[in-house]
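for ur thesis appendix - Pentapeptide repeat-containing protein. copy paste whatever u need, i formatted it the way the template wanted (i think)
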Amino acid sequence: MTYSLWKFLNTDIKDLFSLDTVSEAADATGTVMKLAKTLEDKEIQEIAPWIEQGASLLDVLNTPEAELVESLLPFAKIATGLLKVYLIKSKKNFTFSECVILVAINAYSESLRGFLRNAEKEVSKQSKVAASVLADIEKFTLPEDKAKKTLLCFHRSSLAEHLSTLMRERLQTAGFSNEKASRLSNRATWNTHRYLTKAWNELPDEKLKFNVNSLAEWKTEQRKYDSIDTYLKEYISPNPTDPTRKSRWQVFDEPFTFKEIYVPLKVQPLTRNGDHDKTKRQIDLESWVKLLLDDPDRQNQVLFVQAGPGRGKSVFCRVFANAIRHQFFPIWIPILIRLRDIIRLQNSLEETLRNTIWADFVRSDTGWLTDNNTRFLFFLDGFDELLMEGRTSGGLELFLRQIGQFQRDCTSPEMGHRVIVTGRTLALQNVERTLPNNLERVEILPMGDGEKRQWLNRWSALAGQEKANQFLDFLEDKKCPPRLKGSINETGLAQEPLLLYLLAAMHRDNELNLDTFANADGIKAKILIYQKSLKWVLTKQRSEQFNLELTELQADALYRILTEAGLCVIQSGGECASITMIEKRLRNDNEANELLEAAQERLKENPLRNALAVFYLQPGSKGEGSVEFAHKSFSEFLCAERIKQVIEDWTNIIEKKHRSKFEISDDTLHREIYDLLGTPVLTEEIVEYLFELLHSSDQFQPLILFSRLQSFYLQWCKKDFINQSLEENFPQQKMLQLQKLNVSTGMQLVDIYAGLNVLIILFKLHAAAQHIDYPNLPNGASPAALSFHPCQDLDNDEDNRLLNIIYYADSLDLGTFSKIVGPHLIRANLSRANLTRANFESANIKSANLARANLEGANLYSANLASANLYSANLASAFLYSANLSRANLSSTNLTNANLTNANLESANLIRANLTRANLTGVNLASANLASANLSDISWDATVDWTNVAGLKTAINIPKKLQQNLRKLRLLGPKSKSPNYSDTVK
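the 3d part is after this line
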């Protein structure tokens, strides 16, 4: 520190005013009054005791922090005010560096004071802690070239580093933990810029020669900080002024918030391929995030959190973003975006963020992401909830690539932002191969005993200790099934936060007992919870009389309306639906229409809005006139319920004049198929719900349904519906209906979805009807009554039918068929079908019959073909990278030039298989049978698992080098002159 600055700091305050009229004052009181007048600040009289004592500025600034906190005396104003007086009265100039040091030190003290004031418990421990650090930096110097940089970006300056180190040591000495001391000093460092710019502009005009931060620039800066503060209050804190945003913190209709019931969750780090990384331990999700934020070697990594439905992804984002606001701001500024709210993906993530965040600090500043003094932590919640437009046009792949590139860009010194992305695991099934390589992936684990006990402790504070203890006894009862409480081999429903709450709430209200779940498997138990929670809400939580007064509708009618709302939400993209859409659909339902009209007559107002408010519905992200379910799982379940109701109607038969006929004609059936299934409604979750609901229904008639849908399917394959005139063109009618409701779609899109959804139902009916040993049925076994082959009439040259369907679907977006139908091909009969170059990436073709099918050049990347029958199939040049072929029948299969890298062929039957020039790098061949297989010119490496491989003695054309390796493993006998062995080395 220069001599002149040190002299100023140690100058008696009285002496600052002895040069002029102040010297005429008769006493200390007069001096103080003159000082107050000169500084034009009434609060300056707060320092009267030190002036009377002849104290220096350093003495004032070294006052115990507790006293200054209590008096709320602004540090920076004292220093800059007195410096201003000194400059004017003494006619002396400090150097630029001297001014920067003084103003910056006191701006830092002002910043720190704000955080210490919030740490009320610790303040009492450090009465002398934050006495100004000025006395500790007597020897500190700041070169002129670094002084300007200090003003422009204080937290990166050498002065900031020096001050932060000193303050951290003082805080630790006073009893703060190392972590808290570091956090407080760092927060003060990042926040200093706010005070520094303002204080600098209060210096005399002499400083303008330095050309740093004009008053106009400071006002712009201040407006930005005010906007950030407003955003954090309205969008991140649990206490916004907007009722809709505040309601998102509420746990359904309970009087408490998610913050009160949330417990930290455990995560398991994953490999690049999405498998559990066995080299890494489980860790708390919040701890994992903090570790990656602090790790300088992983600043280019996207924090990628995946999990199944109801595991707490969205609640984590909300609660942890608020914790960042409270504990780490402004080191990190949290930005929370529900991806369902993104209307359209832009050309870059930066553009998408700008169009999504409605805040002045974003809208008014094109350089908001390159400001050195702000660093954002983006929470992008729900990658599986991107609008349907994005999902059908490669939007998810594009979006994830944009995130990866954005995070790489953020490693530049001007940015430094980080991104956390969350979403459902299933949404990644078809994009694993295209994921960016800079994702740090974890999966949220089911709640363990520790997390459940923490949750129950919180529940006891809300529901009462007695109720919490009773619920714990319920879960620990020997009669409580593992599917409910969980076991080593099975994840229990009570291990998912959403379902745990529903169970606890119903148990609290005496709506749950152990008999409820007797003989119910996993999906049955989950459906029971949703069904009982619906009944609980409609008849217990809100009394039936209350519902009646609110809507004039009985519980059954309300349930019918909610199922329609669930369907509308899914048809609109899975996030929210317009009330107009729900109302129009109900108007087409005679029974529901009559109920609504009667209720409206009595209430003299539209009862639908009230009915929708009865369950867990809230205003939608599209604004007034739209609704969304509080949790996506509810809309999925209710959508499945509605589809089940319609399917049952399709199979109803009425007797008329001694004749039987369908209650719904073929023409009406076809119209309703497009109306019901003309959008991607049959997700994996909904299909699972749907078929369990159907199988549990006494009204389900699978044979009739199969027959009617198969007839539709054959007509659809011939393009009978899409080529009709306008009056009879059901795809076009559905398209126009959706477009009027602002749901983006097209006629071909509707046609493709309707056909693929019917195909899913036919495949599921077929799979459910097959013998347990399918597809390897014993000779003479009779075909099932519900046997479905998509290329039936193979003798009539229809073996290309499925291939044409795949190409038709993939005309929308490559991989559409595999994404939509692929998960439902278990036990499918595709024998002898021509599937040349078909895309089955990540498809689930387990136990399917593909005997003699032509799959030449097909894409079977990561496909599940376990136990599939591929006897004599043609897989030449097929891409089987990471495919699961365990226990598959590959006898006599042509695998010439096939890429089997990292494939699982454990216990596979490869007798007489042709593996010429096949790539077996990293393949698992444990217990496989290679008898008489042709291994000519194969590629392999040291990672191939040959454990217990059978049939090698009769395998032909084994490369010479491989023979040597196999002998070392004692899997092959001594060298023989048998023609079975080739001298080929690969």
